[in-house]
Amino acid sequence: MTDILVAGETLVDLLPGAGETLRDVDGFTHRPGGAPANVAVGLSRLGERPAFWTRLGDDPFGDFLRETLDGEGVSDALSRRVGGNTTLAVVSPASADGRRFRFYGSRDVTFGFEPEGLPTDALTAVSWVHLGGVALTHPAGRTAMRRLAAAADERGCTVSFDVNYRPDLVPEGDRDAVVEAIRDILGDTDVAFASDEDVAATGISSHEGEELAGDLLGHGPHTAAVTLGSDGAVAASSTAAPWGETTARHGGFSVEAVDATGAGDAFTSGLISRFAALTDGTTASTAAEADLADALAFANATAALSVRDHGGMAALPDREAADAFLAERE
């Protein structure tokens, strides 16, 4: 039995070879990706084995992604194969200026979640639901994710939401609708995940770090975690949080990074895993700040370990590796 449901896209990351810009790289390597897919696999490796509501094209890339998820122990019970080509996320070289990702392929296939196909039956079997924000860039996906968040909240599930705003995927004229959907889902969210860059692009807040976490709390969540890249992460919580009202910061870990693609998703899976344990009382301590700081440390450990190989999934750690890394570093 699973206790966590993840919802969102699975796609293919095309990682560049040597070169300063996309124009002159010497080729690409394909890797499984998509923020929610990375989170689902990250949770599975940490022992959580989540249910995963996603869409896969009926092309060879869709076959590759399904085989990858199967190999990671992520069930296909809520996965739908649809006609069309899988979305490709082309990653720019680390040294290149401008956009980090460029998206190609069918948006309908990967992001067009049908509102009529909500996995409402699965909500009776889980206590935590995590949603990714990229699907909000598609009209159908936007409606589906809003309805899923509302249904999960109504059924008493803990809802977490990764803002993950991608302006390049927002059709002209749809920005206001996407931002409205983000605000709406935040209202049904318990735990929000974001980066300064994500939120600044939406216009929801112009603050960074701890102040941004506080702003996010004002939109409905009882806990907000803001990733700070190589500087670690900060989180704030209100009195409504199971771990109480507090703020905690963790500076992250210095490691030799090969590829940072998906590091934020590794952080998310680590934090959800630790928060879920705190929620069910199995590891909760008596000090709220200690709980939150411990969760941030574990999440930063999973993120640090995830950058050891190319691609968002390749180096996602299991629980034993994350615990050992923490023990060694702290």
What does this structure look like?
By secondary structure, the protein is an alpha/beta fold. The protein has a single domain (4-329), classed as Ribokinase (UDP-N-acetylmuramoyl-L-alanine:D-glutamate ligase), CATH 3.40.1190. It has helices at residues 35-45, 60-71, 107-111, 139-154, 175-187, 196-202, 209-217, 263-279, 288-306, 319-329; strands at residues 4-7, 11-16, 28-33, 51-57, 79-82, 88-91, 101-104, 128-132, 158-162, 191-195, 223-227, 233-237, 246-250. The strands form two sheets. The chain has a nine-stranded mixed sheet with strand order 5-4-1-8-9-10-11-12-13, sandwiched between helices. α8 (263-279) runs antiparallel to α9 (288-306) and α9 crosses α10 (319-329). The chain is globular and about 50 Å long. The protein starts with a strand and ends with a helix. GO terms for molecular function: ATP binding; kinase activity. Residues 1-318 form the Carbohydrate kinase PfkB domain. This is Carbohydrate kinase. Belongs to the carbohydrate kinase PfkB family. Keywords: ATP-binding, Kinase, Nucleotide-binding, Transferase.
